[in-house]
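User: Assemble these into one structure.

Assistant: Restating your components, then the assembled model:
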Amino acid sequence: MSMAAPLTYTLEKRDNDNFTLNLGPQHPGTHGVLRVVLQMDGEYILHADPVLGYGHRMQEKIAENMTYLQCLPYVCRMDYLGAMSYNLAWVCAVERLCGFEVPERAEHIRVIATELNRMASHLLWWGAYLLDLGAFTPFLQAFTDREQILDILEYLTGSRLTYCYFRFGGLPDEVDDVFLERTMSFVNGFRKRLKNYHDLVTGNVIFHHRSKDVGVILPFDAAAYGLTGPILRGSGFAYDVRKQEPYAAYERFDFIVPTETSGDCLARYNVRMEEFVQSMNIIEQAVNTIPEGPVRSKVPKTIKPPRGEVAMAVETPRGELVIYIVSDGSKKPYRVKFRVPSFANLSVFARLARGQLLADALAILGSLDMVIPEVDR
Amino acid sequence: MIECCYIKDIIRGFASLLVGMRVTMQNMLSRPHTVQWPREEAPLPPRFRGHITVLPDEMTRYPKCFACGTCARNCPSGCITVSGKKPAGARKKVANSFFLDFTRCSLCGICVESCPVGALDFSRHYALADFDGRKFQEMDLLQDLVSPF
Amino acid sequence: MSITPLHLLIYLAGISALVGLNAVILVWLERKVAGHMQFRYGPMEVGPHGLLQTLADGIKLVSKQLLVPNQADKPLFLMAPIVSLVPIFVAMMPLPLGETVQAWELNIGLLLIIALGLLNTLGILLAGWGSNNKYALLGGSRAVAQILAYKIPLLLCILTIIMMAGSFSLRDIALAQEDGWYVLYQPLLFIIYIVAITLETNRSPFDFSEAESELVAGFHTEYSGMGFSLFFLAEYSYMFIASALASILFLGGWQGPLLPGPVWSLIKLYAIIFLLMWFRWTFPRLRIDQMLSFGWKILLPVTLLNFLVTAGVLAL
């Protein structure tokens, strides 16, 4: 069995001028090591075939040989941009399996850290999407603001990108007021900066022409392909795991789920920009109502869950992540399955890219906001 | 009327371009955010994760580590190799070799947390560079400490 | 005015120096402008505030290995950067930078510059075809479509100015603006001209032929070292020529109150180049079909209308 593409992609005698273009694993426009084999007629795409597996690291098999605590660094390296939500999913899944309680203060801090991480991930998406469209400045502007979030999270956890922060039963160590003050001052400053972003990009006529009516996902397709996250909400469904199956204190906070109906790239863009505002609202409420108390409840040193299985769904910045653990009563899980959002989101690309210009196909890929290591696990 | 919308669209589009240009000009006139390393340094937060170090015992200045192997067992990447023996006339073992494979370490901190006596902690070194790769594959964490052997 | 071979040699040497100096300044200026618009410094290490950065870049590019891809059309591949670069030396000759600072006083100077400006596209097309690379081919064909759509509005702009001045010679056009720069009489035309030169020199928001996030580097994907640097030299020199034309046709060339003529000319030229750089770092890129429809459906009617109105006003 060879790793090359099937034989139909090599030279064959044709009487038309169509050619095969390899949007290869190394390309500035695909976010990570994604290979898409395109059959093209001039600049129009006739057929798009994603080829995956360039980043496969056997995370699910490795997890069968690690204890529950040892899996934590592996889990956050799957989606390095939304690492807090992955951490939260793993920790909440094991807590649900073992029946541990989490103190309220820990739950508030978990929500604050996850929402800050969501904002950082959306900032990077904003910069990278506009870089795909050809504007170079918004990328650096987004990174300037993202640095502040990363500094705050570095103060809290010690790491900037792959946080191995939450522990079973709560948080590993105490949280002081400096973190809360820095978070509030960042949120107040960012509300003003968001207006700058809208001035630079959202009203721009060139941006509108590149995003409006490009890559329309109809609601039927969105439901059929199993899309989740801002893509689904851009096509009209108000489905957010934080509202449908609340976890980790989200039902205490008051926020709306932004939805658009047109299903094109502009709709997805607007959904994510509105999610900034909602995340800031959640952070403000969490900081204002945080109680005093312990940050970790008493849990045994080695986690040995009872026999059984658990499925935990969380809302990552890209969509719905489901972690399914089967435990056989020992220190190491018997089987772990990650249902990652980018895998389903990528599957709709082959349908969307048909008949589009190459430039539009890359804009669609940018608006789908995928992280390829997550797809390949 | 079609002509009216056509002209209005052009004017509105053009105005949006000017608004964007104003933002970039404001960026240009404001102070850059770069911290020019190595002439200036960004402040390190207190919980910064450099590579791990073995802490010395306060009174005897020997390594606190008594080579139980908990950190080596709990490390997800298998980076730690530790061994120890009892010095003459002591009750507990003292570590006599502690090697960290920093090329595989993911800075997760599980070793620091799981040590029963708190012998490990993060250092604050980040500017590490060398010509010899073996220096990072077998980082000797006991080289700066007093040895009882 | 006839020109002796000795004068020709001296002027060519002077123009080569100008081209080289211009490239050095523009590379540095572009990186500094890009840096400051993005909250960072740009080059700061090599020389004070990065002034010697271009020198370091030049040394690096010259020392790279010249690769020719497998099964590439070698003569075309190697000829393409030269085809882009050589017409610049001739195109710079009729440009007046001062009252008496002009290499070659031609009575059809403007026509010569416009005609030689097309050879840049020929170079891009040769590079695209000769590289044996589908991305380069896409980049090259996009450049041809772009030029076809934009030459006509550009020519109409220039024809309007020629009508107002009454001559093809650049010196006469600049002298005809003594009582009022043409930008005051034709502001819309100035804006259209700026858009047209952004297109001609393949700068963002119209840099389809070297679109970095779609086609990996467009027509110069397979070039390394000296070939790449020759394309860059050609692009910056065309920017210089186009901005010089803008300052002569609309802003009065070397005329200004206190400073000597050439200094004013350079100030206006570099102001327009700064405007082009400002566009590059602010706007996203258009799509090729949107750009073509913009050219045929918006620019062409507006320019034609302007031309007819100007002709009518002048006849009265």
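The mean pLDDT of chain A is 88.
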